[in-house]
Amino acid sequence: MKADLHVIELEGVAKRYGAVEAVRDVSFGLPQGARVALVGHNGAGKTTLMKLMLGLIRPSAGSLRVLGEDPAAGVAGVRQRLGWLPENVSFNPALTGREVLRFFARLKGERAAAADELLARVGLAEAARRRVGGYSKGMRQRLGLAQAMLGHPRALLLDEPTTGLDPAVRQGLYEMLATLAGGGTTVLLSSHALEELEGRVERVVILDHGRVVADGNMTELRQLAMLPVRLRLTLAAEAVPDWVDGQARRIGPRLFELSCLQEDKMTLLRRAAGDPRVADLEVLQPTLDELYGHFLRNRAGRGE
Ligand SMILES: Nc1ncnc2c1ncn2[C@@H]1O[C@H](COP(=O)(O)OP(=O)(O)OP(=O)(O)O)[C@@H](O)[C@H]1O
């Protein structure tokens, strides 16, 4: 495969289930080593897109290329180089973690030792000989991730991998994904937990009713949305400067919040920084949740 080709490429992809248009006219490409999040409401089409990429279902229109091939053509080499963590991962509860992973290793033509190495990598070495039925949700999820990582996949598709995980386990998972992406694996994950994605992925694709409504990094999404920036000021004393009074919302005894357009931000910052009555200031950029809300409202406003 040439270096300039995307690992995964979608062109005008649609998927219908009877009257339901699960995916509509979706086009994007995922390069090698990219960390991308697919974000959308329940039923937005995230799982359907992943199943299309895995070749588990065929598109009603458009085309997909995964590692240069049509995923639905069933080319064994392609399937082997993809890792998938389904939304609801479940394993035989009577087997130990080690038995489960060794079983999947055999299916992928991997050595048993590779399964054991992966168990250690996801922090399950000590629990390897315990039955999966006694695993916590976080442990099952980590076992699922180890299963997805078997065979050194070129691309990892993770359907809501962090649902139900505590913050420490979640952080560990994102760190692992960063390492994998650094090694050239393309990582696509779907999520509802928008806030936790900040700083964890370099690109976000927002889906709404099967359609891509925004696609870019956080800076690009912020520029596209043109949402105001908020400036939080702490005053040194009770006296409120004229340029704050009437313009700002009081949120504490000496704490005020001002909103401004992105392009006016620097002027306001200079003014605040140059005024000795301002003891502290903080810039609050629109969060991913606010951006998401904006893009969905925009679509609703256009009557789509
Ligand atoms: N096998 C199927 N038969 C009929 N409709 C389906 C099928 N699979 C998915 N759909 C429909 O397609 C749409 C997209 O579903 P999908 O599971 O891709 O959404 P999702 O974004 O993954 O949602 P969630 O966040 O709830 O997991 C939904 O309206 C769903 O009901």
Task: Write up what this structure looks like.
With 304 residues, this protein is an alpha/beta fold. It has 3 domains: 1-81 and 153-222, P-loop containing nucleotide triphosphate hydrolases (Rossmann fold), CATH 3.40.50; 90-149, no CATH class; 228-285. Helix content is 31%, strand content 27%. The protein is built from 9 helices and 13 strands. Strands 5-6-7-3-8-9 form a 6-stranded mixed β-sheet, with helices on both faces. Strands 11-12-10-13 form a 4-stranded antiparallel β-sheet, with helices on one face. It has a 3-stranded antiparallel β-sheet with strand order 2-1-4, with helices on one face. The chain is globular, with a radius of gyration of 23 Å. It binds adenosine-5'-triphosphate. Residues 17, 20, 22, 40, 42-48, 87 line the site of adenosine-5'-triphosphate. It comes from Roseicella frigidaeris.
Could you list some keywords that capture this structure?
globular; single chain; binds adenosine-5'-triphosphate; 304 residues; 3 domains; 4-stranded antiparallel beta sheet; Rossmann fold; 9 helices; 27% strand; 6-stranded mixed beta sheet
Structural class: alpha/beta
Number of strands: 13
The overall pLDDT average reads 89
- Overall, the morphology is globular
End-to-end Cα distance: 38 Å
Order of helices and strands: EEEHEHEHHHEHEEEHEEEHEH
Helicity, as a percent range: 25-40%
Task: Extract low-pLDDT stretches.
Answer: none
Widest sheet: strand ordering: 5-6-7-3-8-9
Number of domains: 3
Give the biggest beta sheet: 6 strands, mixed
GO molecular function: ATP binding; ATP hydrolysis activity
Organism: Roseicella frigidaeris
Pfam families: ABC_tran (PF00005)
Protein name: ABC transporter ATP-binding protein
